[in-house]
Each structure stands twice: as C-alpha cells, then as structure tokens.
C-alpha cells in the first residue's frame, strides 16, 4: 500500500508542477506601445520615459527605412 501511495504522490506533484508552469507562462506576456508617435525619437528620453511609465525597455526603431524612428516601449502586460 505504501508503494501505491508514494507513486501516487509523485504523480500528483508532477501534474501540479506542470499546471504551475503553464500558468506562469501565461502571465509573462509582453506588450509593445509607441510613445509619442508623431515626435522624433531621442534614445535617452525614450529609455527613461518607458522605464518610468511602464517599467519597460524603450528603443528608437524606424518602421521603414528612411522614416524617422519612433520610441517603442516593451513591457510586461
């Protein structure tokens, strides 16, 4: 009887661990927002504003070659 209880315990722990990992993965979603879309991007301002407002990472990225860069902020949703 002890062998059945021990193996059942380990199976339940394995199932519980898998569900815990799945829930954690769902919570790690990342969002992206364009900050001040019409304004030219200053890299230092972009980084500081994104971190202060969203606790994220800001980068100046041009949507197409030849266009001015926009401040793209990536943060946890």
Task: Produce a short descriptive summary.
With 77 residues, the protein is of the alpha+beta class.
Give the SSE map:
Layout: H1 2-27, E1 30-35, H2 43-54, E2 57-62, E3 69-76
Antiparallel strand pairs: 1-3, 2-3
Describe this structure in words.
The structure is a single chain. With 77 residues, the protein is α+β, with helices and mostly antiparallel strands. It has one domain (2-76). Helices cover 49% and strands 26% of the residues. The protein contains 2 helices and 3 strands. A 3-stranded antiparallel beta sheet has the order 1-3-2. The termini are far apart. The model has no long low-confidence stretch (mean pLDDT 79).
- The tally of domains stands at 1
* SSE ordering: HEHEE
- By secondary-structure content and strand pairing, the structural class works out as alpha+beta
Largest sheet: 3 strands, antiparallel
In whole angstroms, the N-to-C terminal distance is: 48 Å
Radius of gyration: 22 Å
How much of the residues is beta strand, in percent?
25-35%
Which consecutive residue ranges, at least 5 long each, have pLDDT under 50?
Answer: none
Q: Order of strands across the widest beta sheet?
A: 1-3-2
Features:
26% strand, 77 residues, three-stranded antiparallel sheet
